[in-house]
Write a structure and sequence with these properties.
The structure holds 2 protein chains of 2 kinds.
Chain A (H helix, E strand, L loop, with lengths): L16 H11 L7 H17 L8 H4 L14 H5 L9 E6 L5 E4 H7 L3 E8 L4 E11 H8 L7 E6 L19 E5 H5 L4 E6 L2 E2 L9 E3 L12 E7 L6 H5 L23 E4 L9 E2 L23
Helix pairs in contact in A: 1-2
Chain B lengths: L12 H11 L4 H20 L6 H30 L7 H24 L2 H10 L1 H18 L3 H7 L1 H8 L2 H15 L5 H27 L6
Helix pairs in contact in B: 2-3, 2-4, 3-4, 3-9, 3-10, 4-6, 5-6, 6-9, 7-8, 9-10
The chains are: A alpha+beta, B mainly alpha.
Amino acid sequence: MRWRFKTDLTENDVTPEEVFRARRRFMAAAAGAAAVGVLAGRTAAASRSDAVLKDEPTRYEDATTYNNFYEFGTRKSDPARLAGQLTVRPWTVRIDGLVDRPLELSLDDLLKEMEIEERIYRFRCVEGWAMVVPWNGFMLRDLLRKAGVRKEARYVAFETLLRPSEMPGQKGRLLEWPYREGLRLDEAMHPLTLMATGMYGKPLPKQNGAPLRLVVPWKYGFKSIKSVVRITLTEKQPPTTWNMMAPDEYGFYANVNPNVDHPRWSQATERLLGSGLFAGSRPTRMFNGYDEVAELYRGMDLRKYF
Amino acid sequence: MTFAQTPMGRTGGMAARIGRLAGHVPVATVYVVGILLIAWPFMQALTGALGPDPVRTLEQKLGLSALQVLVVMLALTPLRRFAWINLLRFRRALGLTALMIVSAHLAVWLFLDVRDPARIWNDILRRPWITVGMAAFLMMLPLAATSSGAAIRRLGAAAWRRLHMLTYVLVPLAAVHFVMVRKGWQIEPLIYLAFIVLLLTLRLEQLLPRRRNKKRSRP
């Protein structure tokens, strides 16, 4: 039987589209708001104070202008400002390593062959902010099965595009480029693990990792590698960028865990993007609220394997 | 006249013109600028102009402004010595303004960001980056408290000067705090730190002879 995606986010957590649009209209200070606009605007305003700390999808504008994508610079606004120059078509992703059939697939192949669905996921950055994003994408495991995972394979390694001419951040040495990430095979095969090709029903914006990125909702955001060009099945745990840079701060697992603090700040709470100056923070949940992955780590000391 | 005190006694040229121009600027301007440096980003945060994470952005903006004011303050002595521009009369105002902005920075962290008293205490003790920042803040307090002419007279010039050497510790600490807050070794905070070290190095020459000339306190 086909695995069905389950989520504790209900319809009620999703802002009705008219409210969404009304709010945007409201923000733009459009004159002569239609009756529905006024009504919806009021609803949005009334629910804002208590809804801000609930899982309401982050505004598209917020999710696309506040990004960590060091290939384009270290400021949150750099990716939105500079990613425009990135060429995302043609785009090829290579699946190699311990697979039966190494593949080279274009983005169009993927969009045609994979089953694209929408998933609304919480997203928690290691820095202590969070958002809720409706992604469009396919399960990584479907792609890996297409290539045929050999039984010696234990890990999956990912690589971001290396193209300093279009990614100015790669001219600096802050990180060792290309950006690399990795998952244990069972994490990669978990049905929650998504390869996103879009968000909010639109193609993935370049600052959010176009045209193809990983989304692992129960791990800190840096695990969800952007603009992926290579997926390699390996026997050994692959080196991963932030872990190489500061192994005491960024573990290989990087599961969202309110009980294991980052050495420099607490992970107990998170600020929800778009919640305003006075909203404060909300408690961070174990595995970012995705309890169904707990079984992957049964018996592991999550303080040691952070 | 201010520029009569410049080491070379030079009055013509660019430096003198800047000095003369600055002579017309009331010291209170510094405080006004300081208040604007707090009020402006706060207004921006309220109106959404600081983006989706206004608490963090406001916190960072205030911290950076405070550091910048400290750097300007630290640059005054080298500026007089090497560029013959005397702006020393702004120094106290700059120091107090820096403290004002740092206080706002701290207030945002306490009341808008962390909020939880237990966690605040825990953070101060256990997170080196916050410990360092807090140490720099605490060092500013006695300096602000003794910033008046009366305090100088009460303490005596020598003791006062010794106390205010804390500046040379707290400003680099503030920059170290900035370096530590960033992920990885980012260039921007390192430039601030390097510049501050340079400004302090330019003083070494001044500090050392003075120490040598001082009467020995021990037999």
